[in-house]
Amino acid sequence: MQRIVVLAGGIGGARFLRGLRQAAPDAEITVIGNTGDDIHLFGLKVCPDLDTVMYTLGGGIHEEQGWGRADETFTVKEELAAYGVGPAWFGLGDRDFATHIVRTQMISAGYPLSAVTEALCQRWQPGVRLLPMTDDRVETHVLVDDPDAAADPGRGDAGDGAGGRRAVHFQEYWVRLRAAVDAHAVVPIGADQAKPAPGVLEALAAADTVLFPPSNPVVSIGTILAVPGIREAIADADVPVVGLSPIVGGAPVRGMADKMLAAIGVETTAQAVARHYGSGLLDGWLVDTADADAVPDVEAAGIRCRAVPLMMSGPDATALMAAEALTLAEEVRA
Ligand code: GDP
Ligand code: CA
Question: Does ligand 1 lie within 6 Å of residue 175's CB atom?
Fold first, then answer.
């Protein structure tokens, strides 16, 4: 049986995984999920990327939105707002709240996040083994020009930069500020002290193939790779590592990967992202047919590259993408 390990963020990772399950129904798939987006709200621990994977593969996702539960209601959120208790900018629905209550209760009882995730997956049966990248707390922060400095001129120092900058939680950057301001730096706080969760290094050591889905290269896959031991385990593994570009035609398909790439000095192109990972990590890279002219550039960096359709427009198109990734993996293995 083929053992596949996938590093995943939220929507891009989750949708790809659904295609992979269809393309390789007999494979044993282990997902290493990003937890840098995790946030504590209303006393609850929220894990947006793990939940997006769990709900998507378990059939509970809000399909059009790509995150959160289908058939959701927002009574609790409205009641909290009536008490003046925020933040109002983070949309937690009633069904979703239950997940975070169960998670927080188990963590308070002493269970590590990996055990909690396994317990939540008992209900959702995602058909993959879902592991958080770490049981330790990691929080991605984004350095921005103080978004509130204009309203309070005394606080900021818009004139010469540094004084007017502020680090905000990634969720605040993305959800409250809608990534409308430039990011100067992205810092996965706590990552350097974090240990891979139980099962992560074991899964990588036993893998036949490692895949990077079209997830955010900075705040999803980059954060997972920032946990000491994970990048090394992938680089040292003697198995094909194949990625799919989240950048198509010089732009993210959705989300703010362009802003995050700019913050780390990487161009928003399919080839620049491949070069950023580098041949030390990647053996193969798929770009969209719209980026076919990027193939020679990627191959010049020592990474086998093919141009195939990379739009996850539906389950079948996504399964074909996954099949292409597995084909490229076999090609580099040979
Ligand atoms: P997030 O945590 O919800 O942001 O999700 P991920 O990190 O897993 O994925 C976000 C990335 O997926 C973004 O950079 C998007 O450009 C990319 N993405 C989303 N849909 C598609 C698609 O259909 N095709 C490709 N190639 N990339 C996609
Ligand atoms: Ca995410």
Answer: no
